């Protein structure tokens, strides 16, 4: 289980035994991938080319997608939404 929080200056991913913090300035691009069944996953790729994948769960509010897109735009981060395999 993981908890995903996004704020104006960073993204925090908390898993059972691990906490990862990404600064928006350290993110190279964001991909939101979805499939026919409604399953969605965010992939945040850092400037050093490492990536973190976060499945979208019910914890997200209705406006989360547009808020993440707006923050990506504010920080000049490439954002792509695409259909998965």
Q: What structural class do the secondary elements suggest?
A: mainly beta
- Record field, number of beta strands: 7
The portion of residues assigned to helices is: 10-25%
User: Given the C-alpha coordinates, what overall shape results?
Assistant: globular
3D architecture notes:
The chain has one helix at 64-74, and strands at 2-6, 10-15, 19-23, 27-34, 40-46, 51-55, 78-83. It has 85 residues and is mostly beta strands. The strands form two sheets. The chain has a four-stranded mixed beta sheet, with helices on one face. It has a three-stranded antiparallel beta sheet with strand order 1-2-3, with no helix packed on it. The longest helix has 11 residues, at 64-74. The relative contact order is 0.24.
Features:
about 80 residues, mainly beta, four-stranded mixed beta sheet, three-stranded antiparallel beta sheet, 1 helix, 7 strands, globular
Which SSEs are present, and which pair or pack?
Elements: E1 2-6, E2 10-15, E3 19-23, E4 27-34, E5 40-46, E6 51-55, H1 64-74, E7 78-83
Gist of the model:
By secondary structure, this protein is mainly beta. It is 13% helix and 49% strand.
